Amino acid sequence: MTANTSANVDVIIDTGDREIPECPHGPALLFVRYERGSSSSKFFACSAFRDRKECSFFQWESEKLSEEKKKIRQDINSKQQLKFSHQEAYDRFSKFKEQSISSRELCQTCGMFLLPGELEGHKGHRIKSPITEEMLEKPTQLFLPLDNNKTFAQYLFSAPAVDFTLKTLEDLSFTHIICVGAPRIFEAIELKKDSNVKGLLLDLDHRYQLYPASKFCRYNMFNHHFFDGQKSDDVFGQFISEEGGKRVAMVMDPPFGGMVEALAATYNKISQQWKTLSDKPQDTDLPILWFFPYFMEKRIKESLPKTFMLDYKVDYDNHMLFRGDMKKQGSPVRIFTNLSPESVILPASEGYWYCKVCSRYSAKENLHCDVCDSCPSKDGKTYKHCFKCDRCVKPSKQHCDTCKMCQRQDHRCGQSLSNGCHICGALDHKRRNCPKQGSSSTKRGAPEHNSSNRQKRKRKK
Ligand code: SAH
Ligand code: ZN
Ligand code: ZN
Ligand code: ZN
Ligand code: ZN
User: Fold this and answer.
1) In this predicted model, what pLDDT tens digit does every residue of 35-50 receive, in sequence order?
2) Which atom of ligand 1 lies nearest, measured to the CA of 152?
3) Which residue, among 77, 6, 9, has the nearest Cα to 43 in the 3D structure?
4) What DSSP assignment string belongs to 236-296?
5) Which ligand number lies closest to the CA of residue 120?
6) How many angstroms does the Cα of residue 355 sit away from the middle of ligand 4?
7) Does the global pTM surpass 0.85?
8) N or C: which end of the chain has fewer CB within 10 A?
9) Ligand 1: does its nearest atom lie under 6 Å from the Cβ of 149?
10) What tens digit of pLDDT does each residue of 313-339 get?
11) Closest Cα to atom 26, ligand 1: which residue?
């Protein structure tokens, strides 16, 4: 079983004064696994690689390592570094470019720009040649996307999604964009030669080492770890504080495997560093666009209460979720942001419209409900109001008088579909709200207050 993809595992952010062990991918994360009936177990595991085959690091929380074992682990960690340092890879790339276009060869299997004489070692691999200047300006199209890989989960934005994101940032006059796991956004910024917008790419994928150290840092977003240590720290610090850090924003498109709390902790660290380095008041936050599926809204809001989910559907070139039924509703990926929703103009050409009551842009099918006093749809379908439930529900549901709530037509009456709480088994709550939850260590963000539009507006009136 892998640590953070299974349903009964949570990540623990507040690790108190524990000593945090390191694997080759930076400080490990502390996880807790719930097993109903038995007590929960805590362990450290790799924060980046969810597959034990790719990073075998594992340590029970209670395990005390001998000095000898620690030494062995340090050796393992230093041996597991990449074949080429950033400088070496960058130098190789410069040499690669000195070759004529027709003799340039890229091994797409290894993601490696080959130098003369190296083809030998890549028999049976997928070799691309010739390689033009234009291709080198669009590495996200040149490299094979690592979309079969649970760790990298590389899903690339469609051109309209890139354009929308950049236009939004430019319209709000941001000039420094931290691109966390968003190589296409970074690449588009690089291609805009006439604009004053700059990007810094932070990504786990070493293939982007073709960019200089001033533009790309190899980075783990689950623990805010720079693989090149101080050097990257400096580049990063310089970038977020340039010109007083005035127009800095962050875009982040993480793998969707969960771990929201770890990502939120990373954002909080970055935002805090930005405030410190550029003398911002404590109550400001670094502007962020966080790309994530709509059904994670509750989790994100628990971790970052000031974020708002935009209705914009983010399209990808290679995403598996868009098959079959999903196609009609469009992409399930949305943008979570702390920018004011009315300032983010969604394209009318794609059917988005401005709802004056909600002061935000809504999708075409998202009809405003006067009873709820909101545009209620989340998933791309038109919701309908149920007067018995006193709220809008998905169109596939119907009110069931036995269950006293709206249910799918194929539901089994009186039986909750949920498996109940992982800790105590009760059906009326999830483990996050379990009263029996081992208190201090599993501390999360503030519990969600019911801050629906309706309640806010009722208070305002
Ligand atoms: N839609 C984006 C790509 C998102 S795919 C775009 O088109 O630009 C997820 C990205 O996060 C990939 O670039 C992947 O290499 C990177 N990534 C995966 N795990 C990561 C980690 N632990 N830390 C940093 N980047 C990671
Ligand atoms: Zn190869
Ligand atoms: Zn509305
Ligand atoms: Zn309603
Ligand atoms: Zn109902």
Assistant:
1) 877 778 999 999 998 7
2) 18
3) 9
4) HHHHHHGGGGTTEEEEE---SSS-HHHHHHHHHHHHHHHHHHTT--TT----EEEEEEGGG
5) 2
6) 15
7) yes
8) C
9) no
10) 999 998 766 555 566 788 999 999 999
11) 204
